[in-house]
Amino acid sequence: MDWKVYQHAKELFAVILKIVTKLPKEYRYEIGSQAVRASLSVVLNIAEGSGKGSDKELNHFFDISLGSLFEVFAIIDVMRANKLASNDDFLTVSSYVESIGDQLGGFKKSIKN
Predict the structure, then answer these.
(1) Which of 73, 81, 80 is nearest to 97 (CA)?
(2) Do residues 33 and 24 lie in contact, with contact meaning Cβ atoms separated by under 8 Å?
(3) Which residue range(s) make up the domain with 36?
(4) Residues 75 and 45 sit within 8 Å (Cβ to Cβ)
(5) Count of domains in the chain?
(6) Cys staple from 28: which of 32, 49, 69, 101, with CB 3.0 to 4.6 Å?
(7) Per the domain annotation, does 20 fall within a domain?
(8) Does this model's pTM top 0.90?
């Protein structure tokens, strides 16, 4: 798939994987796996939506992807607040979240018009 939003979502997933490997072992399963699942959900729902036959279905999968994207943001925010992620990690993830969110929002807006 050559959609830029899909490529950015894959990059976000890779960033999350790197951040999770830096977590203390006692947090990797609960927080780490949730972050990985949420970031993977962003990628998978973009991909699944792109294969649907109607704008309504595509919009539905983009909504799910956006929900997962905001979950990723909340996780990194909580991790930073609890000194489990650096401010640089937070800023990197925030940048991806903003970019991906804007792209998905743009797709959704163009579907409605």
Answers:
(1) 73
(2) no
(3) 4-15+26-112
(4) no
(5) 1
(6) 32
(7) no
(8) yes
